[in-house]
Amino acid sequence: TGLITLDPGFKNTGSCESAITFLDGEKGILRYRGYAIEELAEKADFLEVAYLLIFGELPNAQQLEKFHSDIKAESHVDEEMKKILDGFPKSAHPMGVLSSLTSALIAFNPSSVNVSSEQAMYHAIVRLLAKFPVLVAWTLRKKMGLPLDYGDDSLGYVENIHKMMFKKPNREYTKNPVAIEALDKLLILHADHEQNCSTSTVRMVGSSHAGLFASISAGISALWGPLHGGANMAVLDMLEAISADGGDTKKYMAKAKDKDDPFRLMGFGHRVYKNFDPRAKIIKKAADEVLSSLGVEDPILEVARGLEREALEDPYFVERKLYPNVDFYSGIIYRALGIPVDMFTVMFALGRLPGWIAQYREMRLNGEPIGRPRQVYVGANHRPFKALSAR
Ligand code: CMC
């Protein structure tokens, strides 16, 4: 084992070279393909950002139009898939449903598995970008007891997603520009974040040349956990609990600092950002704007502001460089948009989809070897077998 360096959690180990996302945790910089996240969130839409991440350049009008129409041409999901969804109880966690449905899609699109030509890769990508939002909408609609619909090809990519999620059977769908813009922005902010846990999972699974859909289904499972994407649900649960407990933020600050208490302040801290999370800055502003334009007054926002204020001044948080991360405020917006708490991580997955796709494609195009870390063995030395009767 002399040559093996132990690095649990890969805190200091680079797993690949990548030209997709640049992140400087000390300075709080995040760029997709060289473009600042602040500018993209302000000026681009989610589909343009998806194209940028996956193919490396912002699309011109013609490229974007072709990309969108290729996606629209694939936006149906086999009717048989509804039977699979039907098999889940309504209480099933949406992340489990989504990862299962994403895996099940392979059975209905077997040609998506072999992506060895650029054309086959493109086709698999477009199919996933088309069908995944339908799965997300179905997951939500099943939960809410609404009929399972398909999209509307005359709409923009995100507007269509919004309609697929919220269209009521007995009511005309009316466009809500504030909600759609907020959703678009949130999806952009979540679209990629270099080699985080779920993205590393996608690349690791894909490194065995498993197909795109299977690799992304694994990424969804990785995102599920509360230390990663599941944090956005955990934040809301925490804010609600504090609010129900009389809004005593100081009490929860003390719990978070107590090393004998497993409670952590959800939505605080980040493996890489040690100064601030640039996404959190954008999202905080967006949350204020969305809530005021939708006329929502959410008492939870007061709790959130209180925690943030206290944490930014508290030596425990300051010394450990624990700042609010992207998920601290995203849940407040999702809630204002009428998305149930246990769908929050699904929304994160929807946003992260282009990033996962871009990383999978880059890994395959670079011809990276199969991922296979080593270990430092600390188990028993060689010992003789003991017969069952002698144990
Ligand atoms: N509340 C209280 N203490 C904390 C927190 C927190 N949220 N986060 C870290 N610490 C403490 C931790 O106890 C440790 O203290 P000590 O040095 O005394 O042992 C120190 O800060 C370093 O923490 P760590 O767990 O070693 O850091 P990490 O890089 O392994 O973990 C993290 C990063 C994000 C998992 C962690 O900060 C955390 O659990 N945060 C809460 C969950 C969360 O918000 N996750 C979302 C991350 S952003 C979205 C995404 O990319 O998925």
TrEMBL record:
Swiss-Prot/TrEMBL keywords: Acyltransferase, Transferase, Tricarboxylic acid cycle
Statement: the UniProt record of this protein carries the keyword Glycoprotein: no
Statement: the UniProt record of this protein carries the keyword Transmembrane: no
Catalytic reactions of this protein: oxaloacetate + acetyl-CoA + H2O = citrate + CoA + H(+)
Associated pathway: Carbohydrate metabolism; tricarboxylic acid cycle; isocitrate from oxaloacetate: step 1/2
Record-linked NCBIfam families: cit_synth_I, PRK05614.1
A Pfam family hit: Citrate_synt
Record family assignment: Belongs to the citrate synthase family.
Entry superkingdom: Bacteria
GO MF annotation: an example: citrate synthase activity
Protein name: Citrate synthase
Entry-linked PROSITE patterns: CITRATE_SYNTHASE (PS00480)
Alphabetical list of PANTHER family matching this protein: CITRATE SYNTHASE (PTHR42871)
